[in-house]
Amino acid sequence: MQRHPGTAGWEAEECPLMSPRMGSVILGVDGGASNTVCVCIPAARPFNDPLPVLSRTVAGCSNQNSVGEDRARETLERVMSQALTKARRRPSNVCAVCLAVAGVNHPLDQQRMLDWLRDIFPSHVKLFVENDAVAALASGTMGKLHGCVLIAGTGTIAYGFTSDGREARAAGAGPVLGDWGSGYGISAQAMTAVVRAYDGRGPETVLTNNILDFLGLASPDELIGWTYEDQSWARIAELLPVVVESAESGDEVANKILHNSVGELASSVKAVVQRLELGGEDGKHPFPLVMVGKVLEANKRWDIGKEVIDCVTKSYPGAYPIHPKVEPAVGAALLAWNAIASELDGDIRTVQ
Amino acid sequence: MQRHPGTAGWEAEECPLMSPRMGSVILGVDGGASNTVCVCIPAARPFNDPLPVLSRTVAGCSNQNSVGEDRARETLERVMSQALTKARRRPSNVCAVCLAVAGVNHPLDQQRMLDWLRDIFPSHVKLFVENDAVAALASGTMGKLHGCVLIAGTGTIAYGFTSDGREARAAGAGPVLGDWGSGYGISAQAMTAVVRAYDGRGPETVLTNNILDFLGLASPDELIGWTYEDQSWARIAELLPVVVESAESGDEVANKILHNSVGELASSVKAVVQRLELGGEDGKHPFPLVMVGKVLEANKRWDIGKEVIDCVTKSYPGAYPIHPKVEPAVGAALLAWNAIASELDGDIRTVQ
Question: How many CB pairs under 8 A join A and B?
């Protein structure tokens, strides 16, 4: 394993060419727009229930579109190194790594990431790079790639697979390219509503007081400076609970933003389901709809996730919602585990 | 005059405490989202027609919200230094400076900029800091602050003054906070439409081929990487002519985006006019409506500026459009000139 400048944790490791079977582990990494989680699970099978997660580490955002390629890689390398150290394993114990990161949108992104991983890990280690949505789907289906996942956290994406390996996605293009259903999108629309009310271009809304209070600002004028001081997507998405509370208190502007978000999220799911014909010819065939992310969690009265499911099942009554019991990083690890198991069984599925 | 590290041009200058009356000049600076223009005009009066602009220099963006405070200041200092050198004047010849920059949204922004200018220029120099919209208004009214200006270039803002000095603004809050009528806003909506069509969430549009051709990209997948590679607002706003051409060719999606932009821009103007009662009690009093920026220029068939005027004059028939003959940087210089002239006449108007 090569060393990465400025990355602590690899230093104590040696680099044998082959990993021993005993103590072999798999690393699963989920890199979302807000943070990056790595889990280390044993490569041995079958699994016990609950899943034996040997270690779990967390770092900041590793979406290269948000923080840049260098910072994204440094974060990924650090979180993997720390997970290994915490699990008392050496890099030579690793038999597979699945990196599931937001911002992997194109085969070239995937290839660049694989090349970089190949420089870090010995040649026998199986490497998989996917969009983080794929790991989120796997977290709901215990590693099986079938159905549709909807992620709505800081960002949003819908991603689906058919049983025979076809795939499709919708949204996930980030804030500039219209991911309005996301936590960022909801928050940006709420801040825009505050500016419009202040300007005289839009109706009065309790969002003004609630957002200014939350941010400790005195006037909507100051909102502009606050916004451009640091445009990290996760920072802006932190306003989500304020928007939900404002809607729950009966504010029409906030309610309209959340209803709009429901429409956007449902439209992403339906676009994927339609393209993959997950509902079969009559639209009624059953398929898993995995729901992930803080936007989809139930609140007091506003349950965006439930509204989205209602909207999707009107068109596709066979969609059965799954709220995963394990986190997406475990989904990433299960994905690698399944791929290796398939190879051992002679049934090779190419995840890369 | 203090030296700024890394800024060429000041070096040869001396720093006498008082400026001589002969050869005195005024610097006017217009700092927009795309570039920064500085003009140097004589302080003597009355003016000849055409205006005797002694020199004109251009640099990159100086909106601190877009490029950061340090880079913005460096650009501003360089562009002023170069204008003086080109006009064969010394800093000691300067009797007033008006800096009109996008991104000055709050009294604190203004004060920080004034403090910084005060460190650079001798104490006798009159300093004025305004939002760039104020200079754009002055460019249409030859320095008189009355009426409303609409700027729609990379960004957009509407800004108005009453004759007795009350002022109001709308929009100008940047892309995160909903400036959808701007060149950036139009371009971002067009790119979003491409992603939505590709996803299956929106109708097919010629914007897909036209934008991909313009950017030299092979597939909408690549648009995401292109977008986040460099999020400078001006770079994204460069897609504007592609959107206008697509609309002129009859594309419904592009037409809808431009009509939406007209609605947004007219709504900004109307909000300012209403708050200042520029149209008087019956809404019919005459007032200048100064139109500035590339979004408002006529194209083959699509004339966004004309559509906005039509929309505004339906509510305020007294609005008379002005397309300035001088540029906003000259407007900034005229603003400083007018303020000094008022002081000399004993009629002090505090622009700061």
Answer: 116
